[in-house]
Structures are given as C-alpha cells and as structure tokens.
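If you are new to this repository, start here. Below is one unmodified record pulled from the training split, so you can see the exact layout before writing a loader.
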Amino acid sequence: MDEQVTQFATWYGDGHDGSCPSADQWKNILQRPSDSEITLINFFKLREKADYTDKDSVEGTPATSGQEAFKSYAAVSMPTMERVGGKFLFVGAFSGMFLGPDEDWDVIAIGSYPNLQALVDLYSDPDYRKAFAHRTAACERQKVLTGNSLI
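And here is the target side for that same chain:
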C-alpha cells in the first residue's frame, strides 16, 4: 500500500493545496475492504479563469475559463470512470443547501465504484492523470466525501 500511496503522490501531488488527496487520505481510502463499493461525493467551486500555473503536462492550448477546463477534465474522466467499472449516480449544478450551514459550490458529482480496484484503476490511468491537470486548473476549491453503502 505504501508504494501505491507514494506513486499517487508522485502523480497527483502532496495534497497541501486541497487539489488532490494527501498521503493520509490516500492511505485511508486504500485501507478499505477491497471488495466493497465506494461512493465519492464531489463538490466543485470553479474559477472564473482557469489556472494552469505549473501545469507543464497539459497538452495543447489550455482552456481559458474554469468551466471550459472542467469540461476538458470531464471529457476524459467520465468515459474512463465507466471503462474501469465506475458509474455516475448524479452530475449537476449545485442549487443550494437544504439542511446545514450555507455552502457555495458550482458542481456536484456523485460517483460509485464497485470495488477499490476500480478506483485505483481510474487514478492509475495515464489519460486520466493527464486530464486531472484540467480539474486542478478549473477548481478554486473542492471537497470529496467518501462512503460505503449500509443497505
């Protein structure tokens, strides 16, 4: 597991800026039972203008808006997720809080993976790793919650 954590940190970064999981967060997810379903609930706040600072790995002309950069990410991430066995349960615009403190987001995406290997396969995919630079450039901030089915 430590090798996988090191590999993900090398590919995605150390998570200090909130753009990717930290080593402890990678360890937490990789310690889950390998055969149980994993659901990720993603909240994204997009930048007005995409920030491609230090994104040398991005090929072609970078998108200019956060929304355009996010579309570039989604164009690769959605089919790759499905190819590794995952599926989206919901992707849409954030429209407000129903319960709890007010929060301000632009996009919500709920993805489900049949097992841990499917999630590892997504984050190990070379095309997904390249596209992740668009996600980082697009997002002013993000948070991702994890869960396992109880029923």
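Two things worth knowing about this chain: The longest helix spans residues 66-83. The radius of gyration is 15 Å.
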